[in-house]
Write the structure tokens for this entry.
Amino acid sequence: MTFRKYLVLAGVTLCASIGDSLLAHGMKQVGNISLDHLHDLILAVLNPSVALGILLLLGFFASYMTALSWADLTYVLPATSLGYVLLTLIAKFYLHEAVTTSRWIGILLISAGVGFVTQGPALTHHPSNAEPHERGCETAGRK
Amino acid sequence: MKQAYAWSAIAAIVLASTTGDVLLSRAMKQVGDVGALWRQSGLWTVLGRVLRNPNFLLGVLAMTAAFYSLLFGLSWGDVSLIAPASASLTFVTNAIAARIFLHERVDHRRWMAAVLVASGVVLLAA
């Protein structure tokens, strides 16, 4: 793993957590959407928070795709779950919200999970239908 | 009724995002290391290869379904239920799907990571 690859994983983490928060904030402003008015779901993207959230989620998507090009799905998902920890730490130290003991235990468990997965190789399987050049690239991704 | 809608949305999110993750992961493995390909052949080659890949297009379709299920769910249930419940279940279903469909070597370390992260996410919402 190179520094650039850790930066890509950080991009996945930051864009996903901030984007999700903005979406949640925006959808609370939009209000409940019933099955009879599903077109309201499409109009919801006009809400500024939802729109900004979608922009960040596009950033998440680009970095997520990049990470998946050189790492396993079962490596990328746990390795980028530190976003949950980040959100809780922001809530505690920036928003001065109360963080319960169970949340601190949750943070410990997620951190342990991230530690577990990042100790191992990023890639374990070489797809048989990849071209030789592409296989070479994936092998490089393990370093 | 609200709870039924919320849990239906969670089930839809988990199913759609697991399908999307598996398809996108397969697509990107077929494309190859994006960074190396970009340096070698340029951005347009990377974009062309990604956008022409059928697995990528199907994966985006599944992710779109997951996204709208999330919006639907957030409009009915609390974010503290929808987000962690769907995320934690997706960690486990992804580990199972990656082993079956992507033939990834999901060893003890990765199972432990998936279960620890999923449990941690649930506790964060408690």
Q: What stands out?
A: The CA atoms of residues 32 and 46 of chain B lie 9 Å apart. The mean pLDDT of chain B is 88. Helices of chain B lie at 2-31, 34-41, 43-51, 54-76, 79-101, 108-125. Chain B has six helices and no strands.
